[in-house]
Amino acid sequence: MNAPTKKPAPQINATTQPFWDAAKKNELRMQKCSDCGHIRFPIGPVCTVCLSDKCEWVKLSGRGEVLSHLVFHRAYSPAWKEHVPYSVAMVQLAEGPRMFTDIVDPERRYIDEDLVGRPVEAWFDPVEGDVVVPRFKVVER
Amino acid sequence: MSIAGRIAIAGVGATEQGTLQGRTPLDLGIDAFKCAIADAGLRKDDIDGILTMPGTTSPEGSLHYLRFGEAVGINPRYTGSMTMGGATGGCLVQMAAMAIHAGLATTVACIFGDTAKTGGVTFNRASGGELSWGLWGMLGAAANSAIAADRHMHEYGTTSRHLAEVAVACRKHASMNEHAVMRTPITIDEHQNSRPIVRPLRLLDCCLISDGGVCVIVTSLDRARDLKKKPVVIAGMGQAHTTMNMEHERWWYVPHQKQALADAFRTAKLGPADIDVAQLYDNFTISVLLWLEHAGFCKEGEAGSFVEGGRIQLGGDLPVNTAGGNLSESYMEGWLHIVEGVRQVRGECGARQVPDVDNCLVTGRGMSLNCSNAMILQRG
């Protein structure tokens, strides 16, 4: 089990509240269109395929694969300064959507590796108060 | 009646570039405007259209056009401001052309001034809307292009040394441009030894951050023929944009650029073989490789080997970014690419002049790989 990362906490509003409520229960949930079934991300008010405003926040498996792996040697925000160098991955989730995530890597094992094609899974990080941020960790073979 | 070939660039102007203490985006834009109307042989009162890009440090934001018009004492028939990052300059020139073609204005000044360097701007914006990518550390302009480079390397075997070829070419050209900010030539090994920024990009893959101003004067070809300089015709133009990042299957490859280029070639009735010199938007080295593929100078995935051996340097098959580009001349968000395109077509570039330029391709791209445009500038 990894310790919490002390990374920045999100600004939560009415639109994003269900995402964060799910994360608090250690679940990754995204909006699935009730009319055409498209799962969309980023979060938005209507389906990007059919414009329906009816959706259900479905629970995803939290599993995916790394499409691209970056290593930040520079902090573009003070909140990330103490974490440099850190890995960010563009993750292809099993259910279709993609998201950017930092890779949980407290021992900096992956900084010199290439994680493209490697399986990853969601890991839930209690950043502050009762806010939990989903991140991804590498599934070891 | 088609717009292609009927509109021209009649004047260009640029201020000094680099670290300009005590300047403001507004006064740099005004200085560039004065240079450009002098270049065209026009008076202020001949300008009846003003289109501006607010600098990253402009306090007026999207109302910048009002302040600019007020500051130079022009009540325009046609005006506005636009922010598409590095695509703005080309998109505004195209907008000016359309306004002139539609009869809404006769002579439009497109203006940009910025003090990003002395203003401490770090281009650290994150995309993602209400769920900012910044929450996961995905911040800054370099990161988006790093994704493009990483995917290009994985899919096509492109290497960091290929990216270095772009940096070396731009620096060589800047060394021949007395107005360029970075003029000391570099080698591929120096690129390889520069510090990592966002892997796979290194410091010498990244553009500069600069203060400066640029202005481009657009009018009809008929009017331009009566002005001071030889007209530079906008022979073809195109734009394409993607707003969808994560939901776009190959967002990282910026495939919409192909559409912008295809429209520019189609409207000009030209193809890549007709291009003598190209000014390709280079926020990061990888962008030049993508443009080369999208324009059809080489096949998809082959731009890495295409640029080997100095092919995009002056004297090579296709000289690219002959003034030094964003990487080495100055980071004017692509505006200086238009200026250099005009000067190459006019034959004004001295030691770095490409012989007998009939057609110059100029491209722009901005935001998180989202907005793109292309123009073909032609000898009038």
CATH class of chain B, anyone? Answer: Alpha Beta
The name of the CATH architecture of the largest domain in chain A is Beta Barrel
* CATH homologous superfamily label of chain B: Thiolase/Chalcone synthase
Work out the helicity level of chain A: under 10%
Mean pLDDT of chain B: 97
What's the domain count of chain B?
A: 1
Q: What's the count of strands of chain A?
A: 8
Uncertain segments of chain A are: none
Radius of gyration of chain A: 16 Å
Would you identify the CATH architecture of chain B?
Answer: 3-Layer(aba) Sandwich
User: What sequence of helices (H) and strands (E) makes up the elements of chain A?
Assistant: HEEEEEEEE
- CATH domain topology of chain B: Peroxisomal Thiolase, Chain A, domain 1
Radius of gyration of chain B: 19 Å
Oligomer: heterodimer
What general outline of chain A do the C-alpha atoms trace?
Answer: globular
Order of helices and strands of chain B: EHEHEHEHHHEEEHEHEHHHHEE
Based on CA inertia axes, which overall geometry of chain B fits? Answer: globular
Short précis:
The complex is a heterodimer of chains A (141) and B (380). Chain A is mainly beta and 141 residues long. Helices cover 6% and strands 38% of the residues of chain A.
List keywords for this structure.
heterodimer; A: 141 residues; mainly beta; OB fold (Dihydrolipoamide Acetyltransferase, E2P); 2 domains; five-stranded antiparallel beta sheet; three-stranded antiparallel beta sheet; 1 helix; 8 strands; 6% helix; globular; B: 380 residues; alpha/beta; Peroxisomal Thiolase, Chain A, domain 1; nine-stranded mixed beta sheet; two-stranded antiparallel ribbon; 11 strands; 33% helix; 19% strand
